[in-house]
Design brief:
Elements lengths: L11 E4 L13 E6 L5 E7 L2 H9 L2 H4 L9 E6 L5 H16 L14
Antiparallel strand pairs: 1-4, 2-3, 2-4
Length: 113
């Protein structure tokens, strides 16, 4: 599934590389790691997108190639922290409805709140 098939769409797309971390806001939001062709590899939420971006860059599991491709893009949307779990769950459910499973880099599903 491609990022552009999600509703609501993330509002920003930036290279998933160390040179990009300075432009990632320190606000709450939901995000996606995707391949060059925008195929979703991971869906997440963060109270601080900048901090989470750096944590993922330091995690070899998120930076090495997978069977479905390598994370090249970081897509995100600033979002109300009270509703982050709902948006993350919405995106994961949309992915699961198409593929029958979580994205390859997601190990657990979002809690239902």
């Amino acid at each position: 599934m491609k990022v552009e098939n999600l509703q609501p769409l993330p509002t920003t797309k930036i290279a998933f590389s160390l040179s990009s971390y300075k432009v990632i806001p320190k606000t709450a939001g939901c995000y996606i790691l995707s391949t060059y062709d925008n195929h979703i590899l991971y869906v997440g939420l963060a109270s601080n997108l900048n901090k989470r971006f750096i944590q993922h860059l330091e995690n070899p599991q998120k930076t090495k190639p997978t069977n479905e491709g390598k994370a090249i893009w970081f897509h995100y949307i600033n979002f109300d922290s009270q509703n982050l779990p709902k948006l993350e769950r919405t995106w994961l459910n949309q992915y699961i409805n198409v593929h029958g499973q979580l994205p390859i880099l997601n190990k657990t599903s979002s809690p239902i709140s």
